[in-house]
Specification:
alpha+beta, RNA-binding, five-stranded antiparallel β-sheet, eight-stranded mixed β-sheet
RNA sequence: GGGGAUGUAGCUCAAUUGGUUAGAGCACCGGCCUGUCACGCCGGAGGUUGCGGGUUCGAGCCCCGUCAUCCUCGCCA
């Protein structure tokens, strides 16, 4: 008999003889005096040791049924189950009704790429798997189910990341006769209760509400990790005092010059480390990184010579820099400086241990822009989704300056991760139609794609709004995981394959014919 | 689609600057011990260094290509 055999033993449990106990075993004080032994199933030597070091992920996913035997993973799924139970109880106590919505739906423009399912009965027609139950839950509001929730599976055919899978789970919520503050206030009660249950942490409510424009300016990201400060500062005025060519050019290009100051970074980082940081943000489009070490009476670094004494003094003041700190400056577009500096911010905070990795910081980010400009398509796209209600005070800007219109939208951010997001929806068919047209849809297209929604809105739609919380991400957070695959029983690889089953796989020609489709040559 | 990392025994990892027969721990096989079972002792087997080219007297190590996994930019309402 060997490891991983499945056996049955009948016998008597008894204490071990004195002196025969084994303190290294949990069951070391007792033993089974066996009368009968059945081997239900033998097992070959497994491809990896389930109680040994963690094998590489390729192997784990290929033999996922063995991987899942590992106690650490079993714990994750206990957390996952408990979180679902807690959420269902809280939502039910608050008067919400769980309603299921279709998996086979209709493809809609905007948003992520859809997974499509060809129709056998209707040649050339396709279902789409839902990116979220968004429209169904709005229609449920029109139907009079004024508080809906669902632990819903969602599908998006986009490239994956450590915290992204092609199919994932959301706690999906919608309610009628509410404003943005009603939704966030209710949901943070649930959030606080799960935080207490799974981390022992008592959240102070209400959670901070932070303005989108404000956090992007201060942290370069709309989901900043606020476990630590490390704020970005605009230094364009100081840069103007320097002889540095790069800075002079950025003024011509209308670029921004922003920076941050890493406490202790000047002492900790070598020249080679700093080259590494430069390369790191180079991958994000930044063409350079100006670094200055803060010494007792001067700033040092390859570009320090371009900074006159006054500029050096001004920089120290701007960042409240101490000796041994490191000032990092990036000159580029708004988007590039934001991405580069927010990435640096996260990396430096981790490397310089500026926060307790076990800490949690929850906040709401609010007042997002309604639209984002898509340069490739030459049109506005919805920042959240096309059904979002503008802020009332910005409604008058819809015609004149759509880019300035802010949305009744809110994201829940935990430790720099987007844990959820939602909006108040357009319940007014006129505003909804206007938004469709601003997104570049003709009235005919809007009618063709969203006629059912516009129809519903004309038939007594209450004001409504909602939110979706990333269920997998919360499991990750509460299990201390950094990888979403570890909290999904049978996950996909970064390229969307299932190493265990071999999905996606080929199908029979007969299936193609039945579905009125065929392979396309891509050459 | 772009960038980066990794790929050596069943598993986890080693292998100066390119240099003899590619090593260790665990696992596996055989034996010993036989109330120590994540014990001990003795012995053994096991490698196309992901794959394909190239450079070289000589490649695990250098170069090119390719595949897989991971991270990341784009993308993800």
């Amino acid at each position: 008999m060997r490891n991983e055999y499945v056996i049955g033993v009948k016998g008597t449990v008894a204490p071990r003889l004195p002196g025969k106990e084994n303190p290294r075993l949990v069951t070391g004080a007792i033993e089974v005096r066996a009368r009968e032994l059945v081997v239900y199933n033998a097992s070959p030597t497994p491809p990896f040791e389930m109680h040994g070091p963690e094998p590489n992920e390729e192997l784990r996913l290929t033999y996922r049924y063995l991987d899942l035997r590992r106690p650490a993973l079993q714990q994750v799924f206990i957390v996952r189950h408990r979180l679902a139970q807690v959420m269902r109880r809280i939502m039910t106590d608050m008067g919400f009704l769980e309603v299921e919505t279709p998996i086979l739906g209709r493809s809609t423009p905007e948003g992520a790429r859809d997974f499509l399912v060809p129709s056998r009965v209707h040649a050339g027609h396709f279902y789409a798997l839902p990116q979220s139950p968004q429209l169904y839950k709005q229609l449920l509001m029109v139907s009079g189910f004024d508080r809906y929730f669902q632990i819903a599976r969602c599908f998006r055919d986009e490239d994956l990341r450590a915290n992204r899978q092609p199919e994932f789970t959301q706690l999906d919520v919608e309610m009628s006769f509410v404003d943005d503050n009603d939704v966030t206030s209710m949901m943070e009660i649930l959030v606080a209760e799960t935080a207490r249950e799974f981390t022992g942490l008592e959240l102070k409510l209400p959670l901070p509400r932070l303005d989108y424009h404000d956090v992007v300016e201060r942290f370069g990201s709309d989901r900043p990790d606020l476990r630590y400060e490390l704020e970005l500062k605009d230094v364009a005025d100081i840069a103007a005092q320097t002889e540095f060519k790069v800075f002079q050019q950025s003024k011509e290009f209308g670029h921004r010059i922003r920076g941050l100051c890493a406490p202790g970074g000047g002492t900790k980082y070598s020249r080679k480390d700093l080259d590494g940081l430069t390369e790191y943000i180079g991958g994000m489009g930044a063409r350079g990184l100006v670094w200055l070490k803060v010494e007792a009476d001067t700033l040092t670094g390859p570009t320090a010579k371009f900074f006159p004494v006054e500029a050096q003094q001004a920089l120290r003041q701007r960042f409240d820099a101490k000796v041994g700190d490191l000032i990092l400056i990036v000159a580029d577009t708004q988007a590039v400086t934001s991405l580069a500096l927010s990435s640096l911010r996260a990396r430096l905070a981790a490397e310089l241990e500026l926060y307790d990795p076990k800490a949690f910081h929850y906040s709401w980010i609010v007042r997002f822009p309604l639209f984002a400009w898509d340069g490739d398509e030459g049109r506005f796209v919805a920042e959240h989704h096309p059904f979002t209600m503008p802020l009332f005070e910005d409604l008058h800007l819809l015609d004149s300056e759509p880019a300035k219109v802010r949305a009744q939208a809110y994201d829940l951010v935990v430790n720099g991760e987007e844990a959820g997001g939602g909006t108040i929806r357009c319940h007014d068919p006129e505003i909804q139609s206007k938004i469709f047209s601003l997104l570049g849809l003709t009235p005919e297209q809007a009618q063709e794609k969203f006629g059912f929604l516009l129809g519903a809105l004309r038939n007594g739609a209450p004001p409504h709004g909602g939110i979706a919380l990333g269920f997998d991400r919360l499991v990750m957070l509460y299990s201390g995981l950094t990888n979403i695959r570890d909290c999904i029983a049978f996950p996909k690889t970064a390229k969307g394959t299932d190493l265990m089953t071999g999905a996606p796989g080929t199908v029979e020609p007969r299936q193609f014919r039945e579905l009125h489709i065929g392979p396309v040559s891509t050459t």
